[in-house]
Design goal:
- This protein has 169 residues and is mainly α.
- It contains 6 helices and 2 strands; from the N terminus they run ααααββαα.
- The protein has helices at residues 25-48, 52-64, 69-76, 80-92, 114-135, 140-160, and strands at residues 96-101, 104-112.
- It starts with 24 loop residues before the first helix and ends in a 9-residue tail after the last helix.
Length: 169
Amino acid sequence: MKPISRDPRKPDRDAPEPLDLERFLPFRFSVLANRVTRAVARVYSRRFQLTAPEWRTMAVLGRFGPMTANNVVEHTAMDKVRVSRAVARLLARSRVSRRTDPEDRRRAILDLTPEGRLVYGKVVPMVLAVESELLSDLDAAERAVLETVVRKLELRTANDFADDDDEEI
């Protein structure tokens, strides 16, 4: 069966309205997140040979202490495969340790090693400086509004979109 061809000069009345990506919030957030991640990654990638997932894993362990890989997944919203690969590389570089959970021998507990704590301590001020620079064009009131809006969107997406965390737009 031959497909029906339409005259490209005539509008297709059944076609959906074109998506204005420049105004589509999920797309804008994705682009912004990618730009910010690259800017932050520049401060630790070359000097400490860390990828973004490795740094996120270390950041969570540095902030909250020993935990399982599943807890890292929950805190970072990264998928399990990404966390698993990051943990494997961090273990190989002796930045993270893994031990059996004494309460449940099927689980492993991850923690920063002394080397990992040293790297974490060096990277934190560097990434905070990038954040400060990023926010430098905002006054105190704008920062407060941004914090409020981001917190609301985080809560909204954590509750209503939790099953869709793996999806990217």
